[in-house]
Prior knowledge:
Elements: E1 3-10, H1 32-45, E2 50-55, H2 59-72, E3 77-78, H3 104-107, H4 122-139, E4 144-149, H5 151-161, E5 180-186, E6 189-196
Parallel strand pairs: 1-4, 2-3, 2-4
Antiparallel strand pairs: 1-5, 5-6
Helix pairs in contact: 1-2, 4-5
Amino acid sequence: MTTTVVHLVRHGEVDNPGGVLYGRMPGFHLSALGRQMAQRVASYLQDEDVTYLVSSPLERAQETMEPLAEALRQSVTVDERVIEAGNDFEGLTVGKHPKQLLKPRFWGKLTNPLKPSWGEPYAEIAARMSAAVADARAAARGHQAVVVSHQLPVWIARQHFEGKRLWHDPRRRQCTLASVTSLRFEGDSFAGVDYHEPARDLLPKATEAAGSATGRKSA
């Protein structure tokens, strides 16, 4: 049976000294450390049988893909379906200043953490990510594809394919900066997941100051 692997890569560290929950906001690029992380991802994947590259349209994702695309001399398909999750707290600094959420205008956003009520529903993220993975798998059938996305979409995709519940504690996501979550398929059937951190030794130097409105990890 034909084996296909779709690697879901989280982007590297972002230059965000203000600790903004940047979400889908434009203008947020990789830091110098983030670019080192991108090189680590490229080194980890460039000798694999990668035939198809996909990136989120956001700058930090495309910059993470650049070293690998250059090493493989392959073009990159930009796919809106693997973009960051929508978040109603975008633009705030709730990671540094969580008391912002005590303002009455935010109370209605915090009523249902299982959906979640503060942003794009987990079920919608799972649907768009699984569709994007299916297309990447079809394009790279019998080989490997790389998709650079963001922490929450990658984690929700993994939960979806593993048949696990989508709601979760954001602090327990196994999806560090520049990590690689590899989905294995036998034919059209999901066969398992592998997880690697090519930039693990760089992580202690990283700053995830943006945080999340509902947890400690930035996206």
